[in-house]
Amino acid sequence: MISPVWSRCEVHHKKNDLRGNDALPNFSPRERGVIVRQLLSGISFIVLALLGAHSAFAQKDIYSADYIVPGCRDFIRVGTGNAHLRGYCVDLVIGVARDAYAPRICFPREVTDEQIVRVVVQYIDSQPARLQEDFVLLATEALRKTWPCKR
């Protein structure tokens, strides 16, 4: 529904267009206040939408230890947290442990996936200043220090 202020504005402009006069309509102070409030609320909405979009782009680094370690902790305690993050952690740790860097990491035969993840979490937790670093690099360090290969 069009507010009375806007409909009056349209009628006034049509009347001015017929006369060929470009003069602005003469609104009462109350009507001007309504128009200003509507404009300001529209501008506020746009600014808030832009700020919200900016914060959506300012997300955490999905490769950092800070992002992945909560999923690892959830895996260790068999939590019901974010299943995606839990799987992401385990896949990265086991990938590092079993495939990517296996020649430089020598595990005992009886070691479990949970023990491997636990070692990585303990190592990263002991160095909180490094939480923004790449998780895979920290996991590799942890595993190499815990289970080094004998030469």
Detailed description of the structure:
α3 crosses α4, α3 (65-76) packs across α5 (113-125) and α4 packs across α5. It is rod-shaped and about 90 Å long. The protein has helices at 4-19, 29-57, 65-76, 83-100, 113-125, 135-146. The termini are far apart. The chain has two domains: 4-57, no CATH class; 65-146. The mean pLDDT is 77. It is built from six helices and no strands. It has 151 residues and is an all-alpha fold.
Rg, rounded, reads: 31 Å
Q: Mind summarizing the main beta sheet?
A: none
What is the count of distinct domains?
2
The secondary-structure class comes to mainly alpha
Distinctive features:
single chain, 151 residues, mainly alpha, 2 domains, 6 helices, 66% helix, rod-shaped
How does the SSE layout of this entry go?
Blueprint: H1 4-19, H2 29-57, H3 65-76, H4 83-100, H5 113-125, H6 135-146
Helix pairs in contact: 3-4, 3-5, 4-5, 4-6, 5-6
Give the gist of this structure.
The chain has 151 residues and is mainly alpha-helical. It has helices spanning 4-19, 29-57, 65-76, 83-100, 113-125, 135-146. Helix 3 (65-76) packs across helix 4.
